[in-house]
Specification:
Layout (H helix, E strand, L loop, with lengths): L1 H12 L2 H4 L3 E3 L3 E4 L4 E2 L5 E6 L2 E6 L11 E7 L2 E7 L6 E3 L4 H6 L2 E8 L2 E8 L3 H10 L8 E5 L2 E5 L2 E3 L3 E4 L1 E2 L7 E7 L12 E3 L6 E4 L5 E9 L4 E11 L5 E3 L3 E3 L3 E7 L7 E6 L12 E3 L5 E4 L5 E9 L5 E11 L9 E3 L4 E4 L12 E5 L11 E4 L6 E4 L5 E11 L2 E12 L1
Parallel strand pairs: 13-20, 22-28, 29-35
Antiparallel strand pairs: 1-2, 2-4, 3-10, 4-5, 5-8, 6-7, 6-9, 9-10, 11-12, 12-15, 14-18, 16-17, 16-19, 19-20, 21-23, 23-26, 24-25, 24-27, 27-28, 30-33, 31-32, 31-34, 34-35
Length: 423
């Protein structure tokens, strides 16, 4: 009998999913532990805005990741029909389902993903306490109101979530000047702006801008970019971001594509990026990044092998890492080139084999033997999707090198080289 009890205790101790509980994160959302049955999902997060609760499943694309998608939500077998927002994956929690989430035992979500129907189930242990804490800290719902000055009008709410896509209807003076609408730090000068956080009015009405990455007080303003004057502004509060997640392969070959499934805020300036592990959170490498408009996002891995992270970054103002996952990159495969002769100052062809990646950002450089890998003093040409690379030979005769280069951690590095004799 004693042996049986010990075995049972050991068995129960080996069930981490059953032991985990829902918890409230002071950042403003509920952390939901990993699924206990069905599709293996690492966890989820619940958010609240204007008394409306929503759930985001970590590392999952619901539907096609673009359009709103129907979702079946079952609490202890009772069905609640709802939808997931296409751009964020946020599943709306029906008001009459909240009580069941607090008092029930399990919740199951059923939805289309990747051409099949997916079901995943979460235990509701600790959900009541966590949801009540979230409700007490629920972000307020607010409606945009128009504010006008100096011939310009913008319709702005009192608050937005960090990284959120903000739509600002506007009217501008009847003149041919260039105008923009965007976020600015409070007290900023008439020509100040936040990189990635503004849009020119010529891009459409309403203006689509991404909220700053960090909570705090900012201004949304309309400015005349021609006359360098601010027309109208309103102070707004940026609240904590909704939860975010990334899901990528554990490893990849340098220089190849990496597809990253992600969930999080819908701002178009948010980025999915591959960075060296240990790099400052404030750093963003645009060579190995993509925006979050579509999930999965396709990135190009760096050439250099090593330990990296896939990061979900809010990029307006000081970058903030919303989610991260380790990834190991192996050294990129070499590219073979053949020794070539060319006439000084004349165009010649560089033949590429099947081992050439031919991706955007790839070039053929001409440099002196022994020069740094990013040197192109003899000239350069972009690599086409097919066929030879046409490039002009240096005007100075002598010994040179042709190099196939590609993006690598903020620079360009050679994947292959061959002698070039210029006559």
């Amino acid at each position: 009998m004693k042996r049986t009890s010990v075995a049972l205790l050991l068995f129960l101790a080996a069930q981490p999913a059953q032991a985990q509980t829902w918890s409230f994160d002071p950042a403003g959302h509920v952390v939901i532990p990993a699924a206990v049955s069905g599709e293996k999902i690492a966890g989820a997060a619940m958010s609240c805005r204007g008394d409306q609760f929503s759930v985001v499943l970590n590392g999952v694309t619901i539907g096609d990741g673009k359009a709103d998608t129907a979702v079946a939500m079952l609490i202890d077998g009772k069905l609640f029909a709802t939808t997931a927002k296409g751009t964020t994956g946020a599943i709306a929690v029906p008001a009459d389902a909240v009580t069941g989430l607090k008092t029930g035992k399990r919740v199951t979500f059923s939805f289309p993903s990747g051409g099949k129907t997916v079901e995943t189930t979460f235990a509701l242990k600790g959900s009541q306490k966590a949801i009540e804490a979230l409700a007490a800290n629920c972000a307020p719902a607010n409606l945009p109101e128009p504010i006008s000055a100096n011939g310009g009008t913008i319709e702005v709410a009192d608050s937005y979530a960090a990284g959120q896509l903000v739509s600002v209807p506007f009217s501008k003076p009847d003149k041919s000047n260039s105008f923009w609408v965007g976020f600015v730090n409070v007290g900023g000068g008439p020509t100040d702006y936040m990189s990635n956080g503004y849009a020119y009015t010529s891009a459409g009405n309403p203006a689509k801008i991404t909220a700053p990455s960090k909570p705090g007080t900012y201004e949304i303003r309309m400015a005349d970019d021609t006359d360098k004057v601010m027309l109208v502004a309103k102070a707004v509060t940026i609240t904590p971001s909704v939860a975010g997640s990334v899901s990528a392969p554990a490893s990849a070959v340098g220089g190849t594509h990496v597809d990253v499934v992600h969930n999080g805020p819908d701002g178009t300036s948010n980025q999915i990026v591959i960075m060296p592990r240990g790099a400052a959170d404030s750093s963003v490498n645009s060579q190995h990044s993509n925006n979050t408009s579509v999930s999965p996002a396709r990135l190009r891995a760096p050439l250099s092998g090593g330990d990296y992270e896939v990061r979900y970054i809010l990029a307006v103002g000081e970058p903030v890492v919303l989610a991260r996952q380790p990834i190991t990159i192996s050294q990129a495969a070499p590219v073979s080139l053949s020794a070539t002769e060319a006439t000084a100052g004349q165009e010649f062809a560089v033949a590429l084999g099947a081992d050439a990646p031919r991706m955007s950002g790839d070039y053929v450089y001409i440099a002196r033997p022994g020069a740094a890998g990013n040197n192109y003093e003899g000239g350069y040409a972009s690599v086409p999707g097919s066929g030879d690379v046409t490039i002009k030979a240096p005007s100075e005769a002598g010994a040179w090198e042709i190099r196939y280069v590609a993006p690598d951690n903020g620079d360009w590095a050679p994947l292959g080289s061959a002698p070039l004799t210029v006559k």
